[in-house]
Design goal:
The protein is of the alpha+beta class. It contains 2 helices and 6 strands. The chain has 2 domains: 95 residues, Porin, CATH 2.40.160; 34 residues. It has a 6-stranded antiparallel beta sheet with strand order 1-2-3-4-5-6, with no helix packed on it. It is globular.
């Protein structure tokens, strides 16, 4: 089980300087655990959730488990009318489908590839800012 409090070293300015963001568990239901992050409240969501699904055997396969880490934050963005803002949820997740029996070494290498992708400002900036998925 994950700890009741998680501390993530976040490089908010992407300059190599990290700030600790502390997340505290606020609820737990079957296969889901939700944490409240810094500045989070009922009226201002800043959550980190962990979700899982157990593997189901199929034929000769022992199955595939699923795991997900999901951030959800409430943000204010300009509305259609210049003088108004609207509240929206900013959501990002990392999800995995893990075949039963895969080695820890393979999982580590796989996770490191995901970290490298998320930390590549050129690729992720183009995807997130402009929804670019192929060269112009």
């Amino acid at each position: 089980m994950q700890a009741n409090t998680l501390t993530l070293a976040v490089d908010t300015a992407n300059d190599g300087t990290t700030t600790d963001h502390v997340y505290t568990r606020i609820r737990e239901v079957e296969n889901k655990s939700v944490y409240n992050g810094p500045g989070g409240s009922v009226s201002n969501r800043k959550e980190l959730a962990f979700l899982r699904k157990d593997p189901k055997r199929s034929g000769n396969s022992q199955g595939v488990s699923s795991a997900e880490a999901r951030f959800t934050e409430e943000v204010s963005v300009p509305g259609v009318e210049d003088s108004s803002n609207v509240s929206h949820l900013l959501t990002g997740s990392v999800s995995f489908r893990i075949p039963v029996g895969v080695s820890s070494a393979d999982l580590l290498t796989f996770r490191q590839k995901i970290i490298a992708l998320l930390d590549d400002d050129t690729v992720m900036g183009a995807l997130m800012d402009n929804l670019e998925i192929c060269p112009p």
